[in-house]
Design a protein that fits this description.
268 residues, cell shape, transmembrane helix, peptidoglycan synthesis
Length: 268
């Protein structure tokens, strides 16, 4: 096993974990990084399985919160409404993702130039939204009504286009619908749980015949790196956006998109 492959697996795992829950598009970063690193995994096993590291990270960080909500379900109407809101928000992406999975994976995910352009456009939009004089009506995710959650779920569907960012679309939609920045980011965490688990299960099922575990060491390295990096991000993001907003992420998106276009022009 080449040292270069190990380094690439480590880098891609860190990229996945660091970008999965912030509005910069982990898909775009992993695809572009893999493209320029020349990293290939038989049956795309690596890209599918390192996502599990990020999933486990958010479940670990939010375990006590999830347990508290689960235990409150029989007696708390508020807890039941919150769970219903998350499931309603998840539904649009579940339907569209399942229906268009083949086109998304075989066409959109194989177009690096499109990914770079969407990164830039999404960065400009996120920057503009972050500077709008919005007056939030909702500051606690537990108070989000199902109707609001459904609208946020429709925005999440924009993330079917690689480079958009699942969390970015969710957060932008939530802000426009009247939430504050902190609760918008936190709701994106909760919505990520069913969405990522569903996407992971669908990817695993669709690729079941092509999956190869020949590079288990590389997969393990990427998985652990994604897990550790995602734990760090989930634990620090809410405080960060409370003080800094989303402008740093918007600028980062634009810079990466421009750098990607330059790299594609120079290197192909």
């Amino acid at each position: 096993m080449a040292d270069q492959s190990i380094i690439s697996a480590l880098v891609l795992g860190l990229v996945e974990g660091l970008t999965e829950f912030i509005p910069v598009s982990s898909t775009a970063h992993v695809l572009l990084a893999g493209h320029f690193l020349g990293f290939r995994s038989p049956g795309n096993t690596f890209a599918v399985l390192i996502q599990l590291g990020a999933i486990l990270a958010i479940l670990l960080v939010y375990f006590q919160r999830l347990l508290k909500i689960a235990l409150a379900l029989p007696s708390s109407a508020l807890a039941r409404r919150f769970v219903l809101s998350v499931l309603i928000a998840f539904l649009p992406a579940a339907v569209i993702g399942a229906a268009a999975h083949g086109f998304i994976k075989s066409v959109l995910f194989e177009t690096p130039m499109l990914i770079c352009i969407v990164l830039i456009v999404g960065g400009v939009i996120l920057y503009a939204i972050d500077h709008l004089p919005l007056k939030p009506r909702y500051t606690d995710v537990m108070d989000y009504p199902p109707s609001l959650a459904f609208k946020i779920g429709l925005f999440q569907c924009l993330a079917m286009i690689p480079g958009t960012s699942r969390s970015g679309a969710t957060i932008a939609g939530a802000l426009l619908m009247g939430t504050d920045k902190r609760s918008a980011a936190e709701f994106s965490f909760f919505l990520a749980m069913p969405t990522m688990v569903g996407a992971f299960a669908l990817d695993l099922y669709k690729n079941r015949d092509a999956l190869s575990f020949d590079d288990m060491t590389l997969i393990a390295i990427g998985f652990i790196a994604a897990f550790v990096a995602a734990v760090f991000v989930v634990r620090s993001l809410l405080d960060f956006v409370s003080y800094r907003g989303f402008t740093p992420f918007a600028i980062w998106r634009i810079l990466i998109g421009v750098a990607g276009l330059i790299g594609l022009w120079l290197l192909g």
